[in-house]
């Protein structure tokens, strides 16, 4: 039976099932089911972690076993990219959309007024100021209990202790993390023992996008899995090598997996 949460107005959904995508367990989630599970994770008596995963994350996890072990430690991995959704649907998931990190953050913020508590970790001080202004428009009763722009250099043990002291003292339910590349996922998992609780969400460039400092890809490009192309056109020198490598790896691994399945079916 479906139970309606009268406080928020969303369905209290059961945890979504997960399926294997090139060695990573990815939840067959929607924005609503992801939101319900994120709330549950936020209230556990230990720090938890959520990773919206695109082709870069899945390909890196498949290619680099050490990073694959990092991703396996997340409490929930979400289908952030349309190619991930298409792969899940070939396995029978029946999804109509991805769970894109920036949109998930919007969705959660809109539906978590006080007493829910939010902390912002990443990007620049200027971006964090702009972001909080936007978040207060999304949810006027939002409680941002702290924000931290970490230094743009390698972090020392003293830095990490300072981050943990600041975040633990704020007692957030949600810790939104925006760091470059796979450093974000690695940082969340490698530092979990320092934290007392809260769900850490790896939302990548959500701060830059939601603050208005960079535009979202047009909806039609997002729907056809072309967000990467939109971003590539805006910054080809920086993003070209990354997209060439990881999009190609994802396609190669996906085709290889399909061929193995076909050959296995024919031999059975």
Describe this structure in words.
The chain is of the alpha/beta class and 268 residues long. It has one domain (12-256). Helices cover 50% and strands 15% of the residues. It is built from twelve helices and ten strands. Strands 6-5-10-9-7-8 form a six-stranded parallel sheet, with helices on both faces. A two-stranded antiparallel sheet has the order 1-2. Helix 2 packs across helix 3 (65-72), helix 2 packs across helix 12 (236-267) and helix 11 (227-234) packs antiparallel against helix 12 (236-267). The radius of gyration is 19 Å and the shape is globular. Mean pLDDT is 89; it is low at 1-13.
Query: Numbering strands along the chain, what is their spatial order in the largest sheet?
Result: 6-5-10-9-7-8
Q: Structural class of the helices, strands and pairings? A: alpha/beta
Task: Summarize model confidence as the mean pLDDT.
Answer: 89
Oligomeric state of the chains? single chain
Strand content: 15-25%
How helical, in percent, are the residues? 40-55%
Overall 3D shape: globular
β-strand number = 10
Stretches where pLDDT is under 50 for at least 5 consecutive residues are 1-13
Query: Rounded to an integer, what's the Rg over CA atoms?
Result: 19 Å
Largest sheet: 6 strands, parallel
How many helices does DSSP assign? 12
Q: SSE string, helix = H, strand = E?
A: EEEEHEHHEHHEHEHEHEHHHH
Distance between the ends: 40 Å
Summed up, the domain count is: 1
